[in-house]
Design a protein that fits this description.
By secondary structure, the chain is α/β, with parallel strands linked by helices. It is 50% helix and 9% strand. Helix 8 links the parallel strand 3 and strand 4. Helix 1 packs across helix 6, helix 5 packs antiparallel against helix 6 and helix 5 crosses helix 8. It is flat. The chain starts with a helix and ends with a helix.
Length: 455
Amino acid sequence: MGFLLPFDNLLCILLGISLTVWITLLLVFIIVPAIFGVSFGIRKLYMKTLLKVFEWATLRIERGARERKHLIYKTNANGIIEKEPTSLEEEIKEMRRSGSNRALDSREFEMSDIFYFCRKGVETIVDDEVTKRFSAEELESWNLLTRTNNNFQYISLRLTILWGLGVFVRYCFLLPLRVTLAITGISLLVIGTTIVGYLPNGWLKEFLSKHVHLMCYRICVRALTAIIHYHDSENRPKNGGICVANHTSPIDVIILASDGFYAMVGQIHGGLMGIIQRAMVKACPHIWFERSEVRDRNLVARRLSEHVRDQVKLPILIFPEGTCINNTSVMMFKKGSFEIGATVYPVAIKYDPLFGEAFWNSSKYGMVNYLLRMMTSWAIVCSVWYLPPMTREEGEAAVHFANRVKAAIARQGGLVDLLWDGGLKREKVKDTYKEEQQKLYSRMIVGSHKDRSRS
């Protein structure tokens, strides 16, 4: 036993030195810069290096595939089927023109009309524009992650060694670093907001609350190696308003809150999330609802209205889609937050999936699995655009106002503007959607009889 003591002492000393160096590097290069909102440019250099590596790996895969005469899978951003934006009436008229001997102004029912609905049904099965919004966006090039490569196979020794080195870096270096930063950020958030919560209401409590939140969110952003480009900061949401944004991931909150101050809205949870919520609400007037209250639309609207009427309170952050979409499109905005009458500050968020997929497919991955995939990705890169504030026009319906805001976000973020409800992620198509097509066709036929009766 006596021979083991010197070795044990040496091991303890080495562990102590390693831990000291680790903590010092975290404080100097990550935590302290995050507190003051400065950057040494390390993440941008890291991103440029990754881009060069990805480019080389993609070229090597393509060359190897050509040598072996293998097909290279290429994604089609426009879908499998090329579709023209035409109406039901125009398409049926075109079909009748090519296959019927009747006059073109005849709009009676024809058996050939059935083929229009058959073709639409087959197109929807083959290339559904809704369902594919709930799966991860496909990449045109490989980013050295096995889960994003449809051509993953042995190409060359150098490429295999590079992939293995990437696995080592992501799981043995980046993952421990990111977990440490995440624990640090969450711990400081809980401790800091709890302490600030005991202060009397006033400017000091408000000042400390804002900066404690900001500091902790910035540390959490570093935990994801997130590189965020903010645009048009003069349009940042102001007190007494509502910030609405497209929703891709739970980290959307961290992305926005690391550049501004917001009051959060959500359901009360248990466990760790519940501890964080209870600590946060002590320092800042966030709006949390019990599970039984969430479905009470009147109660939710009243709480939101009371908040925005107070021009001193922070802007409310809301994601009107109600579910995560894969960042290729924006789906239907729920009208509730647009009925309040407050100024709306639209924000468009666009992620770059080349470095890491931010989309949370909640029907496929649990939260723990999703966070593991996020923290073992290379980085999270995104752009955030603050759009000019918008208000509801006189006589404008809340639904139309929501669609107008949604269209502005989609246009700025380069996203597809869809009218479909994101609730289709977990629910069946409502009968009203099916009846809408029936009404359009019926109106076309019945309308012709009315026109004929007038004549």
